Amino acid sequence: MGYTCGRTILELATNFTLRPVLYSVLVLAVAACTDSTSTPSAASADAPVRPQFEIKNVPAFDPTSIAAYDGDHAEVYAHIDQNLDSHVAQLQRWVRQPSISAENNGVLEMAELLRQDLEDMGFVEAELVPTDGHPGVWGYYDAGAEKTLMLYMMYDVQPVNPDDWQVAPFDGALVDHDLGSVLMARGATNQKGPERALLNALQSIIDVTGTLPVNIMVAAEGEEELGSPHYPQIIDKYEERLKHADGVLFPFNSQDREGGLTLSLGVKGIIYFELEAHGSEHGGPMNNEIHGSYKAVVDAPAWRLSQALASLTTKDGNTIRVPGYYDGVRPPSDEEYSLVNGMLKSWDEDRIKQQLGVARWVDGKTGGEALMEYLYTPSLNIDGMWSGYTGEGVKTILPHVATAKLDSRLPPGIDPDQALASIRSYLDEQGFTDISMVTKSSYPASQTSVETPLVKAAIGVFNRYGATVRVQPRLAGSAPFYQFTERLKLPMVFTGLGLGTGAHGPNEFMLIAPAPGVEAAGLAEIEKGYVDLVYALSR
User: Fold this and answer.
1) Residue 425 contacts by C-beta under 8 Å, 6 or more apart in sequence?
2) What is the mean pLDDT of residues 131-154?
3) Are strands 180-184 and 397-398 parallel, antiparallel or unpaired?
4) How many CB atoms lie within 10 A of CB 4?
5) Burial of 506 (0-12, 13-18, 19+ CB in 10 A)
6) Which residue has the higher pLDDT, 283 or 5?
7) Among residues 213, 221, 268, 391, which is most buried (max CB within 10 A)?
């Protein structure tokens, strides 16, 4: 049920509005529509089949079956209310410090700011951790408690284009929005806002009671937006101590406008790599671009790359042709089926499509089929392509190099090293030995059971605040959480009250004070929720 070639080209042209990308996208589209031995038809006998898992009839998980947290911390709540203005200022202080890891802009300064904040809070250990990239930050708060909570934090943010923003992206401005008063800044929701809100909550507990109910370990990185290439080096240094933690929390704004909250228990893994075609003995200009008229007698690296890319999938781009790529995908467990059945009760795919600006899912799938595809199917995506002249006007050249960035999201069961090796082997078998391949990031999937005390404690807290909790086995996105669940064997949740949007894009914000009718938590309630969660974990 793929598009016709003409429709594919038209839609690609309209959906990719950036002129520099359009040329390469059209090249790929044309190549994909070409009958070629390197691009077999999706209907051919040897075409691979994506894994299909039917919805299993098991009872749906019911978050309301977990008792609401019943602790009373009125003095701490009152402290938060009385000091809310200063707490907002703490969030502003963090987002006003740039920390763009891709540009090495303000990264060291932000690492030191976090380290100093931990020291000022009474952490007996607060230090920068050298890596082969940007430094990590380690902190340890010794409460003399029976239980220990590890906090995963990231202090880096994505680049910005100030011209796209309603306000200056690092001013930390409070802006009136239809949702209420919001903090609009790069890092407001991803992830400085919720992280600083958690530290505000911890500081409030310390101010009122003198200490915390649990010991705290912090292992922060400044390269999450780069794929966390050196985060394992941070874990290396503290591995034996971290193994004694009782769980890992990543503070996260998890609510929607109506107050509903999604709790994800894992993420897919990822491989992120570049493919590049160069002029070589295979053909094409070897040193620099040449006049476009020479295409009559000279091979073109841009065409070569587009043909290599087209060989990797069926013509609709939805099924990966690499032999054995799907073999490791494990079927859902009964617990996962229970979570999926719970998700289906609130799976509003029409609303999701509207938010994403898409008209249909792959192959026209709907309902449970679409949800299972999202959660359990490996993907292969072209993130960017470029070659040659992409400026205004006309410049007829034959480029000597063409490059594409790709990612593949991997559900549990697929080893990222094997995935990379199989793609390399397949390209070689198809005759694309001249296409270079450079890995930028790779790590496996992560999964935590809903039956762990950490998860149940979080659900109990959210039930206290009347949030409609949706528990899903994983996000289809990726993060290096395998370091905790697979390496350290610790349960992990990334969650919290609060609403934010615009991560990686312009006008990123976090809700501070909700408008009437908005059910998502504001900053005061967010912090009170973190207070309750810390105490719930101490039981």
Assistant:
1) none
2) 98
3) unpaired
4) 9
5) middle
6) 283
7) 221
Concatenate the DSSP letters of all residues of 77-112 into one string. Answer: HHHHHHTHHHHHHHHHHHHTS--BGGGTBSHHHHHH
Gyration radius (Cα) of the chain, Å:
25
Q: Residue 516: is it exposed, middle or buried by C-beta count within 10 angstroms (0-12/13-18/19+)? A: exposed
Predicted local distance difference test score (pLDDT) of residue 82: 98
Q: Which two tokens stand for residue 502?
A: 């615009």
DSSP-assigned states of every residue in 136-163: EEEEEE----S-EEEEEEE--B----GG
Query: d(Cα 121, Cα 143) in Å, to the nearest integer?
Result: 12
Backbone φ and ψ for 67, nearest 5 degrees, come out as -60, 140
Q: Sketch out the chain's domains with CATH numbers.
A: 63-265+448-537 (3.40.630.10)
d(CA 139, CA 128): 9
Q: How many helices (H) and strands (E) does the chain have?
A: 15, 20
Structure tokens at 280: 């070589």
pLDDT tens digits, one per residue of 250-306: 999 999 999 999 999 999 999 999 999 999 888 999 999 999 999 999 999 999 999
How far apart CA 297 and CA 305 sit, in angstroms, is 18
Task: Classify the C-alpha dihedral 356-518-474-250 as positive or negative.
Answer: positive
- Pairing mode of beta strands 261-264, 469-472: parallel
% of the chain residues with pLDDT over 70: 91
Is the Cβ–Cβ distance between 524 and 201 less than 8 Å? no
Distance of CA 107 to CAs 52, 148, 223, 521, Å?
43, 28, 9, 30
Q: pLDDT (tens digit, 9 = 90+) per residue, 326-385?
A: 999 999 999 999 999 999 988 889 989 998 899 999 999 999 999 999 999 999 999 999
Sequential DSSP letters for 268-329: EEEEEEEEEEE-BTTBS-SSS-EEGGGGGTS--HHHHHHHHHHHTB-TTS-SB-STTTTTTP
3-state SS, residue 477: strand
* Torsion 491-497-501-507 (CA) sign: negative
Q: How far is CA 511 from the centre of its chain?
A: 20
Three-state SS at 478: strand
Distance CA 323, CA 430 (A): 12
